[in-house]
Write a structure and sequence with these properties.
Structural class: alpha+beta
Strand order of the largest sheet: 2-1-7-6
Distance between the termini: 52 Å
Order of helices and strands: HEEEEEHEE
Strand content: 35-45%
CATH superfamily of the largest domain: N-utilization substance G protein NusG, insert domain
CATH architecture of the largest domain: Sandwich
Number of strands: 7
Shape: elongated
Length: 116
């Protein structure tokens, strides 16, 4: 094996290892069931999913937009929105502490609360 092949092989191995570690970090399970719904860094709602009854919340905005947040069976998601791309709805249920549910047009973020 030439020196160039060895360096390339080492670089590819390092990239694969870094990717695996990043995936594990982002997909880790949350430490608690407490979630926060915020808009522009202002907390709108806080829930403990283990103690919250099934419910639907409509969050309306001054510019006539809306998001419908659904809590069901200890899980939370955006079930409907009037944003054009519907990425927040397609994201589905909040699963990990590293990847929040986000509606960019409405600046809405649903994430697990940081440990305190």
């Amino acid at each position: 094996m030439t020196k160039g092949v060895k360096i390339s092989l080492a670089a590819v191995t390092a990239i694969i290892a870094a990717s695996a570690m990043t995936s594990i970090y982002l997909l880790r399970k949350p430490n608690s069931n407490k979630v926060v719904i915020s808009r522009d860094n202002e907390i709108l709602y806080t829930f403990d999913l283990s103690n919250t009854k099934d419910q639907t919340i409509k969050i309306e905005y001054p510019e006539n937009g809306y998001n419908i947040v659904e809590i069901k069976d200890g899980a939370i998601c955006i079930s409907d929105a009037d944003c054009p791309d519907q990425t927040c709805v397609k994201t589905g249920v909040l699963k990990s502490s590293g990847i929040p549910v986000v509606c960019l047009p409405h600046h809405l973020v649903i994430k697990y609360a940081d440990d305190e």
